[in-house]
Every structure is written in structure tokens, then in C-alpha cells.
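Q: My labmate handed me this sequence with no annotations at all. I'd like to see what the chain might look like in three dimensions before we decide whether it's worth expressing. Could you predict it?
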Amino acid sequence: MPPDPMVKMLSHSTGTVKPFIELAKAQFTALQLSARSRELVILTVADYTGSTFVAAQHNPMSQAAGVDERTRQLIRSRQLDDAELSPHDGALLRFTADIVQQPHVADDVFDTARVFLSERELVEVLQVIGYYWTFGRISTVLDVEVTKIYGDEPILDTPDNGTSGRLPAVPSRPCGARDHRSVTRPGAPGSCADSPTDEPFEGFHGPTNRHVPETGGRSPQS
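A: Here is what I predict for the chain of 222 residues:
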């Protein structure tokens, strides 16, 4: 990854910066979801989270993935029911927007998304949304500026020589050093030490009426 302001900001969390960026790489290399669909999701998240950073980086990426300018305009204007959108795109965009805005998705929105997305793709969409919601909030809350548009440059280290995923060293910074917004609250004791948790993971809990079966393939029609 390039040593830009976002990477520097992420590096404050020394224990998670590498896996966070590894997860970014997975969004580009390990999904069944198509690159075009991924970019539609990311642009929608960028708009609904107000992240100009994510939007700026993914406008050229979405163009390279086949998203035309008219579709990007409809996303920016939140015209997700527009007849110019294909049924697939409209379903995906409305599904994404609903997830970003509220904890539960309307039944009709969910059912329509299931028509076009496999069970694996539905879960991948949720993960992409979660990742770029976090990325977007880092950019907005900590005022991370756009210094360069990377477009479709190979900014993630993905060579097939055994070094895939290896990150360049991030320049060290003194504790309490500031750029953009400080991540330390005024008056709070500053510390650069890691603070991992040993609490066990207890698993997921929630309603089962939209359970995704273990078997593959597309969900049956209602």
C-alpha cells in the first residue's frame, strides 16, 4: 500500500492495520461477487456515509469495472428506483442503501436481492458494505484528505512469489503526533501500546427467519 494519509491514519491501530488491509485485498481477489457489482456497492456506501475519500478512489475503479457515468450519477442523486437502472442494479443498490441506513432490510428489498444474488454473494455484499462503511467513517471522522487518486493502479501487494500480503513498513511516528485529526481525545492519556483483548468470541445471535442454508446455489423463490 502507498504511504498516503489513509495508511498513516490506519497505522495508529498497530495491531489491526495489516489484517484490515489484507481484508481489503480479499474484496478484490476472493469474492464470487463480480467486480462491477462490488463497485456499485462501494459507491452506494460512499454516498450514504458521505465519504468523499471512498467515492474519489472508487469512481475510476468503478469505471474500469464497467459502471457507466449515468449509473454513478443515479447513485449520487439516490435515484435507486430509476427505470434506467437494470433490474439487477436496482435491486443491488436498494439492498445496499437499506443496509447502510437501518438495522433491518425491508422484506421486498431482501426478496428482490435474492432473485439476483446467490447466497454467497448476499453475504459478500454484507461484508463489503461493512468494510467500506468502516473505511468511510475513518475518512470522515478523522478528516482524511484525498492526496492522490489511485484508480486501477496495483496498490495492493499481490505478487505470486510468496510475498502476497506483505506490507511495507509504515514510518514510525512519535506518540501523540498529529496529522489531520488526532485519534487521542483531548485530556486523555495518550499511549501507543497495543491493547489486545482476550475475551472469547461467542458467535453470532439473531433472528433465523432469513437463515442462509449451508448448501450452495441460489435461494428458492417464495
